[in-house]
Write a sequence for this structure.
C-alpha cells in the first residue's frame, strides 16, 4: 500500500533580537527539533520542505510577520499539507489570530502539529485543549505587557525619563535628561520671543531670519531626521511641552521630573496662560474680520481645562443643511489629530453647558450651601437672598447665562467634573459683600458619563436615569452562545451557518463571552464606562484577566 506524501513546513519564531546574531540561535534549535520529529514520521510519508519560514525579533501577538505571511500563502496555494512548530505559542499567542489560522488550514485541508505538545485538532477534545493552551499563552503575553506598562507608569510618576524621542534642548543619560546647552539656547530664545511678541508666527519668522534649523539626529535604526526650518506646529509644541518646565507627561497626567528645567516652571505656566488668552483673542478677531453674523457665544471659553492641564477651546462644525454645531475641544487637537492625541476631549458645547449649569443649580439648591451663603444676614435679607438664589437657579436663558458666568474654572476628567466658582461674580449677582461668602462652598464636583450613539454624544450626570445599551447586551448573550458551540467542537464556519451570519462576525462575537462579570452587570444596569460599546469591543483586544479588563475599560 502506497503511503500518501505529506509535505511539512517548519515555522520558527523568537520574540526578541537577543542572540540572533549567534552562529547557532533559538531559531536553529527549533528547526532542528522539528526536522527530527518529521524524520521520525517518515513511515507516515512526512517530508520536510526546504523552504524556511522564520520570524526573528517579532512578537507572537501580531499577524504582521513576513515568515508567517509566506507560510499562509503557501497553505492557500495548496503547497503545504502540514505545519510543524516547536510549541503552539511560536505560531501565535492570540486566540483570535489562531482562529483565523485554523480557518485557513481547514479551507486548504491542511493540519499542524506541535513537537512538544501532543493533541489532534481533528477531534473536538483536541480543539478544546488547543484553545485552552492558547488562552494561557495569550494571558501570559498580556500579563507581561501589563507589567511593562505598569513599570513605565510607576517610573514616570517618579519623574524618570523612560526613553523615546529626546526633546530638543536635552540629551538622554540613562533614565534622566541632561540639558544640551547649545540646543537649550534655542529653546530659551523661542520662549523669550513668544513672551515679547505674543505670536507663534513672530517666533517662527525670527528663527527663519537667524537661519536656525532643527537639530540633526540619527535614530537607532539609522534614520536621520532634522536639519530643517522650524514649522508653526513644532514651535507651538515646544511652547506647550511640560518637559521644559522640568516635568514628565504620561498619557493624561503630568508629574514633577528628575531632570533640570530649561524654563522656570512659573514662567512656563505664565506662557500657557498667554497662549490661552491669545488663542481666544485671535478667534474673536478673526470672526470680526470676516464679518460673520453674530452667533451663539461659548460662555465657558477660557474656563475649561482637562486632566492634563490643557485648556478646551471652542470649535464648531457646519452640516450640509447649514446647521452649526458647537464643541469644546482640547487645545492639542487644534494642530493635532485624534490618532496623535487619543486622550483629548471633544464635547458638544450645548450639552456640556446645560449639564454644567444643572450641576451648579443642584449645588446651590443644597440646604448647607444656602445656609452658608446667607450666614450673617439678618431676617430681612434672608428672604431676599433666597429669592435671588431661586432666580439664579432657574430654567430661563438669562439664569443659565448668569449661572455659567459665576464659573471661574472647570476641570474635566474621566467620570468627573470639578468646578470652582468666582467669588466676586457670585457676590455681585446675589448683591452680597464679598467677605460674606464662605469660600468652602465655592468648589464642588459632579460625576458624569458619556454615551455615544453614532456621531451624537450625550453627557449623563451621576443622578440621571441611564438606559441599557441593548445592542451591547444582546451581543454579550450571542457571544456566550458562540462559546458554548465552540466548546462542543463546532468550527467557526459551522457556527456561522447555524446562526445565519458571517464567520468574521462569529469571531467578533466570541470576544463578548470573555467579559468580566462586573462589566456584564454594569451593562445590564446601564452603568458601563464611557465609550464602552459593541463597536469598541470589535475594534480592541481585551486582556484575559478580569481585573485588567475593568481597569482598561474604566479609562474610556
Amino acid at each position: 500500500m502506497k503511503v500518501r506524501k505529506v509535505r511539512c513546513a517548519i515555522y520558527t519564531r523568537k520574540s526578541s533580537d537577543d542572540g540572533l546574531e549567534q552562529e547557532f540561535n533559538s531559531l536553529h534549535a527549533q528547526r532542528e527539533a522539528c526536522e527530527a520529529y518529521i524524520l521520525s514520521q517518515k513511515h507516515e510519508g512526512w517530508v520536510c520542505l526546504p523552504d524556511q519560514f522564520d520570524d526573528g525579533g517579532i512578537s507572537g501577538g501580531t499577524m504582521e510577520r513576513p515568515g508567517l505571511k509566506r507560510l499562509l500563502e503557501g497553505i492557500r496555494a495548496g503547497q503545504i499539507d502540514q505545519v510543524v512548530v516547536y510549541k503552539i505559542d511560536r505560531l501565535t499567542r492570540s486566540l483570535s489570530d489562531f482562529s483565523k489560522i485554523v480557518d485557513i488550514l481547514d479551507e486548504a485541508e491542511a493540519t499542524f502539529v506541535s513537537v512538544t505538545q501532543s493533541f489532534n485538532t481533528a477531534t473536538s477534545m483536541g480543539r478544546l485543549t488547543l484553545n485552552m493552551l492558547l488562552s494561557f499563552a495569550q494571558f501570559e503575553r498580556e500579563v507581561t505587557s501589563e507589567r511593562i506598562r505598569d513599570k513605565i507608569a510607576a517610573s514616570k510618576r517618579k519623574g524618570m525619563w523612560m526613553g523615546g524621542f529626546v526633546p530638543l534642548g536635552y540629551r538622554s543619560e540613562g533614565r534622566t535628561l541632561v540639558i544640551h546647552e547649545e540646543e537649550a539656547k534655542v529653546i530659551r530664545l523661542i520662549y523669550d520671543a513668544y513672551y515679547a511678541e505674543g505670536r507663534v508666527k513672530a517666533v517662527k519668522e525670527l528663527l527663519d531670519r537667524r537661519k536656525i534649523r532643527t537639530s540633526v539626529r540619527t535614530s537607532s535604526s539609522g534614520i536621520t531626521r532634522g536639519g530643517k526650518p522650524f514649522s508653526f506646529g513644532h514651535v507651538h509644541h515646544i511652547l506647550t511641552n511640560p518637559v521644559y518646565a522640568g516635568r514628565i507627561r504620561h498619557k493624561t497626567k503630568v508629574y514633577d521630573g528628575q531632570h533640570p528645567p530649561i524654563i522656570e516652571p512659573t514662567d512656563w505656566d505664565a506662557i500657557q496662560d498667554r497662549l490661552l488668552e491669545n488663542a481666544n483673542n485671535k478667534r474673536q478677531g478673526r470672526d470680526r474680520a470676516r464679518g460673520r453674523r453674530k452667533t451663539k457665544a461659548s460662555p465657558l471659553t477660557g474656563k475649561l481645562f482637562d486632566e492634563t492641564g490643557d485648556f478646551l477651546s471652542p470649535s464648531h462644525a457646519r452640516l450640509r443643511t447649514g446647521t452649526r454645531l458647537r464643541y469644546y475641544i482640547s487645545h492639542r487637537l487644534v494642530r493635532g489629530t485624534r490618532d496623535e492625541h487619543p486622550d483629548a476631549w471633544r464635547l458638544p458645547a450645548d450639552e456640556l453647558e446645560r449639564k454644567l449649569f444643572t450641576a451648579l443649580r443642584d449645588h446651590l439648591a443644597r440646604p448647607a450651601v444656602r445656609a452658608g451663603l446667607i450666614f450673617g444676614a439678618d431676617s430681612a435679607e434672608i428672604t431676599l437672598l433666597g429669592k435671588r438664589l431661586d432666580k439664579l437657579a432657574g430654567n430661563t436663558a438669562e439664569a443659565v447665562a448668569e449661572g455659567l458666568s459665576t464659573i471661574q474654572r472647570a476641570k474635566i476628567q474621566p467620570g468627573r467634573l470639578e468646578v470652582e466658582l468666582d467669588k466676586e461674580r457670585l457676590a455681585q449677582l446675589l448683591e452680597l459683600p464679598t467677605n460674606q461668602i464662605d469660600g468652602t462652598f465655592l468648589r464642588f464636583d459632579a460625576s458624569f458619563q458619556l454615551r455615544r450613539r453614532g456621531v451624537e454624544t450625550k453627557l449623563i450626570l451621576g443622578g440621571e436615569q441611564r438606559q441599557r445599551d441593548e445592542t451591547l447586551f444582546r451581543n454579550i448573550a450571542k457571544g456566550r452562545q458562540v462559546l458554548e458551540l465552540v466548546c462542543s467542537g463546532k468550527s467557526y464556519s459551522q457556527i456561522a451557518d447555524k446562526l445565519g451570519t458571517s464567520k468574521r462576525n462569529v469571531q467578533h462575537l466570541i470576544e463578548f463571552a470573555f467579559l468580566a462579570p462586573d462589566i456584564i452587570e454594569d451593562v445590564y444596569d446601564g452603568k458601563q464606562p464611557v465609550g464602552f460599546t459593541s463597536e469598541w469591543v470589535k475594534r480592541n483586544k481585551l486582556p484575559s484577566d478580569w481585573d485588567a479588563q475593568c481597569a482598561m475599560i474604566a479609562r474610556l
